[in-house]
Design brief:
The chain is mainly alpha-helical. The protein has helices at about 15-30, 55-65, 90-100, 105-115, 135-140, 150-165, 170-180, 180-185, 195-210, and strands at about 35-40, 45-50. Strands 1-2 form a two-stranded antiparallel sheet.
Length: about 220
């Protein structure tokens, strides 16, 4: 005797396919442990691909927090990176050299923090080219946070302090600039915060771009 299968609406197929696609996407993200790469335009308009991370430490941290990718598509996705010629480049070079800090790294931080807008103010109260918080500004005796000289000088001094704290590891120093040095120490590495992972990837990617610019040396 044959059994007639119950009538089923064809719409049950849709959620099943969606769940399957979701599981495949998660599997792909969890197995993607290579360093993220980004296409950037050369001066002639062509595209070249560079790693947006330049540190084994950052790569290992991204692998350690791979589980975060189940809820965040790509924690370190930052879009395209473009080098910018800024009116503050001479000042960035001058202050960086004076404090023995890589000018390309400093410019990358300024780019990521304020996009070279000296009057930039965040919702958290950070201000100026290097987005200094009032406490940090007070620590380095800044009188006017909107003054490019004072802001850059204090920001570079703070970045140098962080580099010394983390034995010259740029990825950890940059993470500390974003999340605070105690967060980096507490997690014994780059904190698994989405904002910080994105920030570190962006700054190191920009640093790679600016490091090829002879004017920043």
């Amino acid at each position: 005797m044959s059994v007639t299968p119950p009538n089923r609406s064809p719409f049950w197929i849709v959620p099943t396919l969606c769940v399957g696609a979701w599981l495949v996407a998660i599997a792909g993200l969890l197995t993607n442990t290579g360093a993220p790469r980004e296409a950037v335009p050369d001066r002639d308009g062509s595209q070249r691909v560079i790693p947006i991370t330049a540190s084994p430490t950052l790569d290992s941290q991204l692998r350690r927090v791979g589980a975060a990718r189940t809820t965040i598509r790509e924690p370190y996705f930052i879009g395209r990176l473009y080098a910018v010629n800024s009116e503050f480049d001479p000042l960035i070079r001058e202050i960086s050299y004076a404090h023995d800090v890589d000018a390309a790294l400093v410019k990358a931080v300024v780019h990521a923090e304020s996009a070279f807008v000296s009057e930039a103010t965040s919702l958290d109260g950070a201000r100026g080219l290097m987005q200094l918080m009032p406490g940090t500004a007070s620590r380095y005796a800044v009188q006017d946070l909107d003054d490019p000289h004072q802001n850059l000088r204090a920001g570079v001094r703070h970045l140098k302090y962080l580099l010394e704290q983390f034995d010259g590891d740029e990825s950890l120093a940059v993470a500390a600039y974003n999340a605070g040095e105690y967060a980096v120490k507490r997690f014994d590495g780059i904190p698994p915060y989405t904002e910080t992972l994105v920030y570190v990837g962006k700054v190191l990617g920009l640093r790679s771009l600016y490091a090829t610019n002879t004017e920043m040396h």
